[in-house]
Amino acid sequence: MNCLSSKRILLGITGGIAAYKAAELVRRLRERGAEVRVVMTEAAQAFITPLTLQALSGQRVHTDLLDADAEAAMGHIELARWADAVLVAPATADFLARLAQGRADDLLATLCLATRVPLAVAPAMNQAMWTNPATRDNLALLARRGVQVWGPAEGAQACGETGPGRLLEPEVLLERLDGLFAGGALAGKRVLITAGPTREAIDPVRFLSNRSSGKMGYALAAAAVEAGAEVILVSGPVALDCPPGVTLLRAEDALTMYALVQERAPLADIFIATAAVADYRPRQVATAKIKKDAATTLTLELERNPDILAAVAALPGAPFCVGFAAETDDLAAHARKKRLAKGLDLVAANWVGAPGQGFDSDDNALELFWEGGQESLPEAPKTRLARELIGIIARLYQEKYPQGTPQDLHAQDSA
Ligand code: C5P
């Protein structure tokens, strides 16, 4: 898909080590036929030179709000009007804080305030700065105002630490920008998805788990990106590649998955829980490998894991919530009961034990239940089923929130 041809992209670069990736992004955008203008903060210029970006964009780079010559060439308001979309990548913690405050103390912040086109930020920072409540609050505020937050990815950081805070790769940012113009059924929507099994540790080498392959969740993530959504996939351990354009967060066990989902859910418009979360975890995780002894039995005491989906559905301003239900008998009655018990907008139920369908297979069939409606999606490859399901979710979401988002409605209710 290339919807970037002839699009005018204003790229803001702020002062982080990931600024060097912006050069590659500019090059790729131009390859796709986009026009690019670059605005750099003062700190960004300490990491990469305006000359590099000028050469790659083929345009003068804008750096100064109060430069009479630059303003004469194209004033900041004109620049804000010129763009079809504004992306700030990398966006530092400081820049996000200034944006959240609505400051206009440099050219880039002023442009972001002045523009009426879609504004996206791709954060990049040290993992502790990313998880700091001040940054979280700033991002929640920006997301409520409609700013799209792309990433960050997690992994090794330039500072030597590991965790969330890496700038998304240029090709992922490219897909996200493309998605903005694709005008799909979920264009501009933020979709959070869980997938795969969880592993509940017994000791350092053993765990309790299940047969979930993650295929349905990964197919839904790919279909949601195709429909123009910004997608975060929280995945248990699976043997699948992350679909292009999806932000992947890995969770080994249910408690980690719960924490990651709780952190991201307040910013999501739609939450789809496909993960086969272990209902129980060992109460005690042995610190050393449990040795076999003469006894012929071993008793493990288990305790309940939190229900990730029910907890999201109970949040104030909860996203549109979709759950899955694997049933062996009386599918419709059990699925309807589950929908009400967990407070879901939609439940997708499937028979388990049917040959060639369900957990580890490539095909599935689903029965969908929502308030006042139901629909059958007959057996098909999970990739096709995922597209159909995303189409139905988009339609039901639109009917429930014809204007605004779940968070907007909550903010109005509590005002
Ligand atoms: O209650 P049951 O496990 O049958 O519900 C299945 C649905 O709930 C799935 O959508 C699953 O992803 C979600 N779930 C969850 N957290 C749990 C258990 C189930 O999110 N601890």
Describe this structure in words.
The structure is a single chain. With about 425 residues, the chain is an alpha/beta fold. The protein has 2 domains: about 10-180, Flavin prenyltransferase-like (Rossmann fold), CATH 3.40.50.1950; about 190-415, Rossmann fold, CATH 3.40.50. The protein is about 35% helix and about 25% strand. The protein is built from 15 helices and 19 strands. The chain has helices at about 20-30, 50-55, 70-75, 75-80, 95-100, 105-115, 125-130, 135-145, 170-180, 215-225, 255-265, 310-315, 330-340, 380-400, 405-415, and strands at about 10-15, 35-40, 85-90, 120-125, 150, 155, 160-165, 190-195, 200-205, 205-210, 230-235, 245-250, 270-275, 280, 300-305, 320-325, 345-350, 365-370, 375-380. The strands form 5 sheets. An 8-stranded mixed sheet has the order 12-11-8-13-16-17-18-19, sandwiched between helices. α1 links the parallel β1 and β2. The mean pLDDT is about 90. The structure holds cytidine-5'-monophosphate. Cytidine-5'-monophosphate binds next to α12 and β16.
Helix content: 25-40%
Q: Low-confidence parts, pLDDT < 50 over ≥5 residues?
A: none
* Overall radius of gyration: 23 Å
**Proportion of beta-strand residues:** 15-25%
User: What is the CATH H-level superfamily of the largest domain?
Assistant: CoaB-like
> Which small compounds were modeled alongside the protein?
cytidine-5'-monophosphate
End-to-end separation in angstroms reads 42 Å
How many helices in DSSP terms?
Answer: 15
**Spatial strand order of the main sheet:** 12-11-8-13-16-17-18-19
Bulk shape: globular
User: Which secondary-structure class do the elements indicate?
Assistant: alpha/beta
CATH class of the largest domain: Alpha Beta
Question: Which topology of the largest domain does CATH recognise?
Answer: Rossmann fold
Please provide the count of β strands. 19
CATH architecture descriptor text of the largest domain: 3-Layer(aba) Sandwich
- How much is the average pLDDT? 92
Major sheet characteristics: 8 strands, mixed
Total domain modules = 2
